[in-house]
Every structure is written in structure tokens, then in C-alpha cells.
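Wait, mind explaining this?

_____
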Amino acid sequence: MKLNGKEVLRPTLVLFLICLLTTLALAGTNLLTKNRIAQQELLAEEESRQVVLPQAEVFEETDGYVIGKTDSGETAGYIFVTEAKGYGGTIKVMTGISSNGTVTGVKILSHSETVGLGANVEKDSFLSQYNQALPQSGFSVIKGATAGDGQISAVTGATISSNAVTKAVNEALTQYSAISGGE
């Protein structure tokens, strides 16, 4: 069987043109939606700040963290965004800590955990466990028991994800200690 150059060139050229047009369409869509996506991410971040530090009215970004202030200008607390490796990938966590050293809220910003298992770390029943005074040695995850001070009950079947969130929150505690002088 002898191959004809025209039989090979025509499908190759058609495939090339299809790939080129698809690439141009995707690039154009990305260009058109880039600003809108950035606005939505900024809005979501602002809403998350209000969730993790509800007593703050104004937020000032500084180098590596956010200071939440009341209307009168007093510091209400601090917000830290940290990451840790979970079962399905990186878990990005926002933690609010009041100026008197209490965790006021924890919110998962992004994750790739398994739906129905690790993704359950997003639930308020898990995240609200962190809302307590800062423990001396950080938070620790326990399995199958009622958690005490500084202890977090792991999500059933998702210990790796629970540990990742706890590691990210503990990183926020470390950053808080660094800026508050270890109080």
C-alpha cells in the first residue's frame, strides 16, 4: 500500500486548524472573563474575612496577613491565609484570631478533597471546633472521642484532611504569635 502525500497532509492540516481554532477560542474566553473571575474571587475573600472575624468592620492588608479593625479604629483581630497538604492536594485555609487570642473563625478557601469524605472538613460542625482560646501547644486531632481544649475531633474517614486543616490553623497560630509578641 502506497501512501499519497495528499491523503496524509489533508487530515493533518484539518486537525491542526481545529486545534488552532479551539486554542484561540479558549484564549479569547479567558481574556474576556479574567477580570470578572478576579472580581468574584475578591468578593468571596471579603465575605470570608467577615465570616472568620465578624467583629471587624474594616480590613487592612499588610505583609502576609490582614488586620481587622472596628469602626472606631481599634484592632479587632487578625486574619491569616495558610495552606497544608491534604489527601487530595493542597487545602487553603483562612483563620481569624481576635486581638485577645481566641480563634474567631476558620474557613476553607479551596481544596481538592474527596467528596463525601475529606470535603466534609468544610462543614461548620468541624470548623467550629477551632473557635476557642489559643492552646499553648497548638491544636491536635483526635479520632473518635469527644474533644477537649485544644483538641479537634477528626472527620470520620478523613483523618488526613482533618490533620491538614489543623496544620494550616496551627500555622496561623504561629504567625499570630510572631506578630503579637508571643502573648
In short: The beta strands are 58-61, 66-69, 75-85, 90-98, 103-110, 140-142, 151-153. The radius of gyration is 23 Å. The helical segments are 5-52, 124-127, 159-180.
